[in-house]
Amino acid sequence: MVNSDIEIFLNRYISLPPHIIEIFEGLIEYVEFSPNEFLVKSEEYSTDFFIIKSGIVRSYYLTQKGKEITRAFFTPGYVTGASSAIMQGIPSELNYQSLTKVTAYRGSLVKLKELTLAHHEMSMFYIKTLEDAYLKAEAIVLEIATSNAEERYISLKERVPNIDNIIAQKYIASYLNVTSVQLSRIRKKLYSK
């Protein structure tokens, strides 16, 4: 029987016949993470991707001085995991951590790639997800290059309207590459308008 969550997710990229959806469902499993639990830790080899059903996951880099630099937030409908590390066969440089309770579907990227060789439809799905990831990454790079912290905060609030009530301010400040004090000033300025 086809899981409607998975069918909706897959159909965001490409319309697939039911038997291909069932093959994909055989590749994944439902998982839950408590707040602050790691999906992937830096320096670990991973083979898994995660489709976020609920909650928020962040990816972050830990500098040699111990500073955490939040790279991205992943919300429901997003795919996350150490994909670039998996593709290169190297340990992850990033940590992937749940910031809230997270429900997700976990699957093996290696097995997904194997399915692309056996099923043209899965190959097309894989291409579409890679295109989507590229476009999202390009948009992030452009936003970082052309927007200040206040504009990036507004953009984040548009994507996750209640983010201030869901996760700690230090994670938002890290994502914006500002201090918590600077974030407070940004919020105060915006809320006083």
What secondary-structure arrangement, pairings included, does this model have?
Elements: H1 4-11, H2 18-25, E1 28-33, E2 38-40, E3 48-54, E4 57-62, E5 68-74, E6 79-80, H3 83-88, E7 95-98, E8 102-108, H4 109-118, H5 120-146, H6 149-159, H7 163-166, H8 169-176, H9 180-191
Helix pairs in contact: 4-5
Give a verbal description of the structure.
With 193 residues, the chain is of the alpha+beta class. It folds into 2 domains: 4-137, Sandwich (Jelly Rolls), CATH 2.60.120.10; 147-193. The chain is built from 9 helices and 8 strands. The protein has helices spanning 4-11, 18-25, 83-88, 109-118, 120-146, 149-159, 163-166, 169-176, 180-191, and strands at residues 28-33, 38-40, 48-54, 57-62, 68-74, 79-80, 95-98, 102-108. The strands form 2 sheets. The chain has a 4-stranded antiparallel beta sheet with strand order 1-8-3-6. Strands 2-7-4-5 form a 4-stranded antiparallel beta sheet. Strand 4 (57-62) and strand 5 (68-74) form a beta hairpin. The chain is globular, with a radius of gyration of 18 Å. The termini are far apart. The model has no long low-confidence stretch (mean pLDDT 92).
CATH topology of the largest domain: Jelly Rolls
Biggest sheet, in brief? Answer: 4 strands, antiparallel
| Percent range for β-strand residues | 15-25%
Q: CATH superfamily of the largest domain, called what?
A: Jelly Rolls
Number of helices, counting only DSSP H or I runs of 4 residues or more: 9
- Main sheet: which strands, in order across? 1-8-3-6
Secondary-structure element series:
HHEEEEEEHEEHHHHHH
Calculate the mean pLDDT score and round it. Answer: 92
